[in-house]
Design goal:
Elements lengths: L4 H7 L21 H5 L10 H5 L1 H6 L8 E3 H21 L8 H13 L1 H7 L2 H11 L4 H15 L6 E7 L2 E10 L8 H5 L3 H16 L4 H21 L9 H4 L1 E3 L1 H7 L5 H8 L6 E3 L2 H10 L5 H16 L5 H8 L7 H12 L1 H12 L2 H24 L5 H13 L1 E5 L19 H19 L19 E3 L4 E5 L14 H17 L22 H19 L2 E2 L3 E2 L6 H15 L5 H14 L2 E3 L1 H10 L5 H9 L3 H7 L19
Helix pairs in contact: 5-6, 6-19, 6-20, 8-17, 9-15, 9-23, 11-12, 11-17, 11-18, 12-16, 12-17, 21-22, 21-24, 24-26, 24-27, 27-30
Length: about 650
């Protein structure tokens, strides 16, 4: 597909993508330079995002096969180059057995030794589909699902997690999450054909390799696709994904048996290794639809999908010849990319530990902590001065801010929940991947009997993103967000505040967004945390924000879904207000705004923007800059924005979170 660069430059839009784009991939052909330079640089008052990112949008290229490219991809690419060098350095030296470096070295060597992988064969994992096919009854199938999880870390229709109880975060509870959809979101089924095609091909290829005749394999694959489609269409929408009122459904044994009337749930829980009475069901409508399929007459479909999930999880560890048949990959796949993929997938925490220990120097961490403390202090000042909050509510918010744990860099206390067996000791890639997945499954089972740890990390150090966890009142800023591509020590304090500081401030403000404001300082959900009058006043702000974004047009055609994106928009608005509150100096403010506009710079095809508007919780980037800044009073102070400017929003229409 030819990228519509000219249209993009005129619209100056972006959609945030945290997907990694390898820099060695060829770029799509671009229009002639004369066509691009004909597009004038917009004035600050007309389009701030376009003005700051003009050179990036004019000269940037989208890598071949991708739909977008952003500054977050720059961060990911820098990290990927660093990681590959890190892997080679681990391989080149003797490593202490049991260390993260040792695991990286051994798994690398076992992956690149394709002859050894072929010789080892698939028998270690072939046991699973054989045992699945032997199931004659639903009870036998349920027992097998539990065995698959405990011994191989494989889930299919029942995917469990252990998290703090939303109403009492001093204890962990068992959550029945959305089923394993082989990496597909609901939108991949309900708005595109991607999900159906992907699962259909994987199921068909897997069944053929298990000696099913091609026509029969295709017929059975279609039944699996129809089943998954039906389940997906009954699942809740993205805009409710963090709504406790919808997704916290506490079921005792009796209620769970009623919800899953076709499933022996007590036997299933025991088979999975979970000794518990209550279960939190994340998606009740999805559970009801899954229950409908758990009938003896559908057993073959259920078994076929369990096999599909098995191959999806283990395809990269199979002998190369079988992997190509299952995953439909060409024989000339780039080995360098494959190495990074399998190590990042299987040893993400181990890579993150080594990466973080190298990236997070004293100078970097001192700079990051100063930035974080400045942002936290600014937020404290805004809460104290907030006119819509009573004194009691201010105290509650300030206590929450003070009790917030901000984890930056990497988990220095990380210990692998598995052991890697070297080739010298008779180990091979497939066996070690099984050990890894089993280790993590057993770790989840173990957590159910433990107390929640507020110092646990929600992201590994090699994730180019950041997150706020409302159940723990914690922010995680991975080391990748402190690398030179994000936190550049050669740049000014205020430029960095606008760039990586925007991400920190954004996550802190999630604690007070349309969902976060209902959680207390320990992460417990409390619908009446602040008084009714203050809740009502805040809901007026939220309603105004929803309307403000819903009326914001992209390409003069498309409207943002203000309800879907509300929580992220509030975090954006609060973040910029928080950053701007740090200084009154005009030049410093400009550097903050420039850095914040710069971080969202991206190239995006129009089709990608339309898809984002349909299901992404985040607004496209033009809005993450222009809509946010137009609602920020200090933006007008910094740039003398006039009423005649397109960026101008009347004071009474601006969304002030604080």
């Amino acid at each position: 597909m030819i990228k519509k660069a000219a249209a993009l430059l005129l619209s100056l839009l972006m959609a945030v993508s945290f997907a990694s784009c390898a820099s060695e991939e060829p770029a799509m052909p671009q229009p002639e330079t004369k066509n691009k330079t004909d597009i004038p640089k917009p004035d600050i008052g007309e389009n701030y995002y376009g003005n700051i990112n003009y050179d990036y949008l004019i000269n940037g290229q989208i890598p071949y096969g991708k739909e977008s490219y952003s500054h977050f991809d720059d961060i990911s690419n820098e990290m990927e180059k660093y990681l590959y060098d890190l892997i080679l350095r681990c391989v080149s030296k003797e490593q202490t057995k049991g260390s993260c470096e040792y695991s990286i070295k051994e798994l690398y060597q076992q992956f690149v030794d394709t002859d050894a992988r072929e010789k080892a064969g698939p028998d270690l994992i072939a046991i699973v589909p054989k045992k699945i096919e032997e199931c004659k009854t639903l009870d036998e199938y349920i027992s097998t699902l539990g065995w698959m999880y405990q011994e191989y870390g494989i889930s299919s229709f029942f995917r469990f997690d252990v998290q703090p109880d939303a109403y009492d975060t001093s204890v962990n509870k068992l959550y029945l999450m959305n089923f394993n959809s082989c990496g597909n979101m609901k939108e991949n089924f309900t708005r595109t054909n991607a999900g159906a095609e992907g699962i259909g091909k994987l199921t068909e290829h897997t069944l053929v390799e298990l000696d099913t005749e091609v026509t029969e394999a295709r017929k059975r694959a279609k039944k699996v696709v129809r089943m998954i489609n039906d389940i997906m269409y009954q699942s809740t929408d993205s805009e409710t994904s963090i709504d406790v009122g919808i997704h916290y459904n506490n079921y005792d044994k009796k209620e769970l048996d009623k919800l899953y009337s076709n499933v022996n749930m007590q036997k299933l829980l025991k088979a999975f290794g979970f000794d518990t009475g209550d279960v939190i069901v994340y998606d009740v409508s999805q559970s009801k639809k899954i229950n409908e399929f758990f009938k003896q007459e559908n057993l073959q479909q259920l078994k076929d999908y369990a096999v599909t999930c098995t191959m999806y999880k283990y395809s990269t560890a199979l002998p190369p010849s079988l992997q190509k048949k299952i995953s439909d990959k060409s024989g000339d796949e780039d080995m360098k990319k494959s190495i990074k993929a399998i190590l990042s997938n299987q040893l993400e925490e181990e890579l993150g530990f080594v990466y973080g220990s190298e990236i997070c120097t004293d100078e970097v961490m001192n700079t990051a902590y100063k930035m974080m403390n400045d942002i936290r202090s600014s937020c404290r000042d805004l809460i104290t001065k907030c006119s819509r909050l009573s004194d009691d509510s201010k105290k509650i918010y300030l206590d929450k801010l003070d009790n917030m744990i901000i984890l930056m860099g990497y988990d220095k206390d990380y210990k692998s929940p598995f052991s890697i067996v070297s080739e010298a000791e008779g180990g091979n890639l497939l066996q070690n991947v099984i050990n890894i997945q089993k280790g993590w499954a057993q770790n989840t089972i173990k957590k159910l009997s433990e107390k929640p740890d507020r110092n646990s990390w929600d992201m590994t150090a090699i994730t180019a993103n950041a997150v706020y966890n409302p159940y723990m009142n914690t922010v995680t800023i991975p080391a990748a967000m402190l690398s030179k591509a994000s936190l550049d020590l050669s740049k000014s304090e205020y430029r960095n505040l606008g760039f990586v500081g925007y991400c920190i401030a954004h996550e802190i403000n999630h604690a007070f967004d349309s969902n976060g404001f209902l959680f207390d300082k320990n992460g417990c959900y409390c619908s009446e945390l602040i008084c009714k009058e203050d809740r009502d006043n805040y809901r007026k702000v939220l309603d105004k924000a929803e309307e403000y974004y819903s009326s914001y047009k992209l390409l003069d055609i498309y409207n943002i879904n203000g309800k879907l994106t509300l929580s992220e928009n509030i975090a954006d608005l609060g973040a910029i207000q928080c950053l701007a509150n740090i200084t009154d100096n005009k030049e410093n403010l400009r550097e903050i705004f420039e850095g914040a506009a710069d971080i969202w710079g991206s190239l995006e095809i129009v089709e990608g923007i339309v898809m984002q508007l349909d299901g992404d919780l985040h607004s496209p980037s033009e809005a993450r800059v222009n809509a946010v800044f137009s609602s920020t009073d200090k933006f007008y102070d910094a740039y003398d924005i006039a009423e005649t400017d397109k960026m101008y929003v009347a004071p009474e229409n601006r969304i002030r979170v604080w």
